[in-house]
Amino acid sequence: MPVPIYQVDAFTSEPFRGNPAGVCLLETARDEAWMQAVAAEMNLSETAFVVPRADGTFDLRWFTPAAEVELCGHATLAASHILWEIERLDASEQARYYTRSGLLTADRLDDGRVELDFPAIPSAACDAPDGLLDGLDVGHAVHVARPRTDYLVEAGSEQVVRTLRPDMSALKALDVRGVIVTARSESPDFDFVSRFFAPGVGIDEDPVTGSAHCALAPYWADKLGKTEMVGFQASSRGGVVHARLAGDRVKLAGSAVTVIRGELDA
After folding, report:
1. CATH number of the domain that 100 lies in?
2. Which of 50, 134, 197, 257 has the fewest CB atoms found within 10 Å of its own CB?
3. What's the chain's average pLDDT?
4. CA–CA dist 249, 227 (Å, integer)
5. Residue 14 annotated as catalytic
């Protein structure tokens, strides 16, 4: 029986910007090898696999082309966008997902954006490991920290972040999911800019990374003295993430656009 599958550009209101995610809607769970094969076939940063539960909630898992990940913001946003768009959920109904990172929720805001409720990820200052700063070619680092699964490096300026050309082989050798590089924004429209590199899980550069903003929000909230911020991820596609720190949670909001609708016959 054909399986519905979609491609959605997340954290953008324009097609072909933001971060493309696959969304695969299943009626029953499939095995990991099949999901990994589909994610490799889609060849996007992540593909989300959504399985309904009897109580109206969903199981949700995310796969890169190379591995399963514990948390993914843009693919969760994309999945929620599709559930409302095809009317599996009413516009006023909250999407509730059971995941490897616990219960996550999504709400549709009045302006059409999707707001995710994700765990805040604190960062502890650390020394830069061998290969990190040279691999990034970031020059002087203002600060180096270790969120749960990544390194976070604050660079000296937005221009440094935008012009980075990392050595992916050096970053891949680090024992982390990925590396977040960030700086204060020089534009009044944004509070900070960032980029995210994760060659260790098959993604040299992720266009827009919701899970990275789970660490960026508390980091910049502390530095800027504010709990509501707007981040711009300065990849070649670019994307905007509205972040609101709420205790040990982060509310991440963004737009989404469906660009492909299809069916899997496999």
Report:
1. 3.10.310.10
2. 134
3. 97
4. 11
5. no
Residues 114, 144, single domain; the answer is no
Sequence-ordered list of residues with C-beta below 8 angstroms from that of 234, at least 6 positions apart, any chain: 158, 161, 162, 193, 194, 195
DSSP 8-state secondary structure symbol assigned to residue 128: P
Which residues are paired to 36 by β-bridges? none
pTM of the complete model: 0.94
Query: Catalytic residue among 14, 32, 41, 46, which?
Result: 46
pLDDT in the model for residue 139 = 87
Under the banding of pLDDT at 50, 70 and 90, the label for residue 1 is confident
Using DSSP's 3-state secondary structure scheme, residue 32 falls into helix
232: domain range?
A: 124-247
What per-residue confidence (pLDDT) applies to 178?
Answer: 96
Amino acid at 98: Y
Are residue 113 and residue 139 in the same domain, yes or no?
no
146/229 same-domain check? yes
